[in-house]
Amino acid sequence: MKPRALILHATGTNRDHDVARALELAGADPEIVHINALRDGAASLLEFQLMVLPGGFSYGDDLGAGKLWAVALRARFGEDLESFVAQGRPLIGICNGFQALVKSGMLPSLRNSAAENGLRTQQATLTRNESGRFECRWVELEPGGSSIWTRDLEENIYCPVAHGEGRFVATEGVISEIERRGMVAMRYAGDGYPANPNGSLNDIAGICNPEGNVLGLMPHPENHVVAEQHPQRHRGRQPGSGLALFTNGVRHAVLV
Q1: Is 95 a catalytic residue?
Q2: What is the spatial distance between Cα 112 and Cα 227, in angstroms, rounded to a whole number?
Q3: 17 in active site
Q4: Which of 220, 224, 230, 252 is catalytic?
Q5: Catalytic status, residue 159
Q6: Which of 111-115, 132-136, 157-161 is predicted with the least confidence, judged by mean pLDDT?
Q7: Domain boundaries, position 99
Q8: Which of 208, 222, 224, 252 is an active site residue?
Q9: How sure is the predictor about 234, in pLDDT bands with cuts at 50, 70 and 90?
């Protein structure tokens, strides 16, 4: 059976159909659902086996990239979201979706991340690129860590970035714990800028939660899932597809 995959659309997100194509190729049955339809009860998070927060500029990035989306997730769907993750269902946030997961406290979700009122505390952030400008370029990602999304990936992923606020920063203690627990799921491969397009600490491009089922990353693997998308395909160079990442997520969704 194909697992049902929720692609949660908010006003301003713009990579929904790219993600849907990647999930279809990976063997899922994707559905794009606006966050307001979820709020109104037309659908429920727990009807789905896999969930994606796609890239874009949710709510115009007012108050900061991903901040209002993070508030909406916690305020409207906090209980269902916690249940979804606790059941081990795969969740991925890409670019703006990663920003929302970090600012809602769903990532990195280290110990003591839950406040007394049941809301998670933010433990890291994604801030303005060190270059001081919007970065749109292709980058190489080295997969690793304990995430179910990156498990057994033997090839680096080659895909684009497109963001102005993608620099991952946190306190030294948080970074140390993320590293120690194998929660760095993706690193920018290469030496300095522009290989690391935003100046993220430790070249971090993506992280997972301690359990490994929630992944957030800034680059867009959904934009390189077929050979024709590779920018040098006419020269016979087509390595680094991101499809295996989505295949891993879909495979895990079937098992949960």
Answers
A1: yes
A2: 44
A3: no
A4: 220
A5: no
A6: 111-115
A7: 4-255
A8: 222
A9: confident
